[in-house]
């Protein structure tokens, strides 16, 4: 049976990651009194000039500092959270930040999930991912001798061709991530909230949806429930794209909601997209 969450119009163009989952003085002849007066006058002028110069210097420095701050804020390659890492996806013209302990992969890396009943069918995936505890749990799920590493958390961005609007992206993709990563082939244990309008720190507007599972079968020691948060928005070209987080729940060290939302708050645009965009 076809996966009810599958989105046929959003097939990736790469094979999925098979892991489940830069000044002069006065004249010489001058009376002593005039000399003193002249010195006083020159001193006063010098003090006034110095004071003016300092004031101008302060204003100029403040101006330069403000300009530098503005330039830094407009540079998507610099993290909005001090000490964090920036993840850039040039294909979609997006960026976001993750904590220093996360592993940032190359932009061209595709991370996704295939249908457990049809290994040639990719259910969902994204590029330029960042992993949290990429070897949190390892298991030979199929008993074929091939050990797979299960991550505790994963975040990335993807295109959303075929979606109607940012909310539509989030509604479709959030439960798909949970189903693909944690509950296949059971969709009955997946639930999702209604879309919520949201604006990031940099002013990117869109909507997000949170989905989760409850009662996923423990088919192996790494299996269990998980959640996903998907934020749909538009890039600089007006294409619909999404930022996606998914991770395990109910286990020690799981990424909490506050951190997920803090990462989401850093989502921003990063130049012109490199991909060809949606077709006609």
UniProtKB/TrEMBL annotation:
Pfam family, one: DUF8017
Listed transmembrane segments: 35-58
Span list, region Disordered: 1-29
Keyword Transmembrane included in the entry's annotation: yes
Domain DUF8017: 77-271
Superkingdom of source: Bacteria
Keywords, in A-Z order: Membrane, Transmembrane, Transmembrane helix
Keyword ATP-binding appears in the UniProt entry: no
InterPro entries in the cross-refs: DUF8017
Sections of the chain in a coiled coil: none
Stretches with biased composition (Low complexity): 1-10
Name under which the protein is recorded: DUF8017 domain-containing protein
């Amino acid at each position: 049976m076809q996966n009810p969450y599958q989105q046929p119009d959003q097939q990736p163009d790469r094979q999925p990651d098979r892991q489940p989952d830069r000044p002069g003085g006065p004249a010489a002849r001058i009376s002593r009194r005039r000399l003193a007066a002249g010195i006083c006058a020159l001193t006063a002028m010098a003090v006034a000039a110095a004071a003016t110069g300092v004031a101008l210097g302060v204003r100029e420095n403040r101006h330069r500092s403000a300009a530098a701050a503005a330039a830094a804020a407009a540079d998507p390659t610099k993290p909005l959270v001090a000490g964090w890492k920036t993840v850039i996806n040039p294909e979609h013209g997006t960026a976001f930040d993750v904590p220093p302990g996360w592993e940032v992969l190359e932009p061209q890396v595709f991370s996704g999930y295939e249908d457990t009943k049809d290994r040639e069918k990719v259910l969902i995936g994204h590029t330029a991912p960042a992993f949290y505890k990429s070897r949190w749990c390892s298991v030979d799920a199929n008993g074929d001798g091939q050990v797979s590493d299960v991550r505790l958390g994963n975040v990335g961005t993807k295109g959303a061709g075929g979606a109607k609007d940012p909310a539509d992206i989030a509604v479709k993709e959030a439960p798909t991530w949970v189903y693909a990563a944690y509950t296949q082939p059971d969709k009955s244990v997946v639930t999702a909230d209604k879309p919520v309008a949201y604006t990031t720190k940099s002013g990117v507007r869109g909507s997000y949806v949170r989905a989760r599972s409850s009662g996923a079968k423990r088919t192996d020691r790494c299996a269990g429930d998980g959640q996903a948060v998907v934020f749909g928005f538009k890039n600089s070209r007006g294409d619909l794209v999404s930022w996606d987080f998914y991770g395990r729940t109910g286990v020690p060290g799981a990424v909490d909601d506050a951190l997920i939302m803090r990462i989401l708050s850093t989502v921003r645009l990063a130049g012109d997209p490199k991909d060809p965009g949606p077709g006609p």
